[in-house]
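User: Can you predict the 3D structure for this chain?
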Amino acid sequence: MVPLSAYLILSAFLFATGVVGVATRRNVLIIFMSIELMLNAVNLAFVAFSRFLHSMDGQIIVLFVMTVAAAEVAVGLAIIIALFRNKETVDVAEINLMKW
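Assistant: Here is the predicted structure, written as structure tokens:
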């Protein structure tokens, strides 16, 4: 049996990788994938704690998080496609919609 600490270390590593991806990348798609990686890291921690505590609560929360993530992907990709069609770039530094 794999100990809980192994799952939590993997989850922390995945979450840290996602944070580094959001903080250092300039491509909107890479940032979007990094956010999804962070969501999956949290889901892994929820499932690990759920199994460790012999409870279904964590797995139910993961089901809701996955549902919200699927909706986020649909809306997020639609926004990214609309930005690309208007600005012809997915670079965060060049997308400045709030400036006159």
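The chain has a mean pLDDT of 92. The two ends are 59 Å apart (CA to CA).
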